[in-house]
Amino acid sequence: MSIEDILAAKKAEDEERKKQDSFQHLIESGQFDHLGAETQYNVRETEQTITAIGDTVKDLKGMAVQMSNTLDDQLLLIDQMSTKTTNNNARIKKTRQKIQREF
Asked: For residues 74 and 59, what is the distance between their CA atoms, to the nearest angstrom?
């Protein structure tokens, strides 16, 4: 991972933490006290589910970044192989031409 990727991931984690803290603050400050117990339970359960989904998406993003980096590395290797193959084909062609001239 590049430094930019690490910084972006850290920023995303910080923003997610702020969102969770602000929701927790709403609960603790009594913003949901007017709701029934079952509704409060459902709100908390929904928040936990959303947090779990966010964590999963964050993990998937990390995997996608790693896959992207791997593909970039492999593309460089393929380009190098292509260049070497082209050079070798040219050398083989020249060698064939020399052999044909001699016979």
From this structure: 23
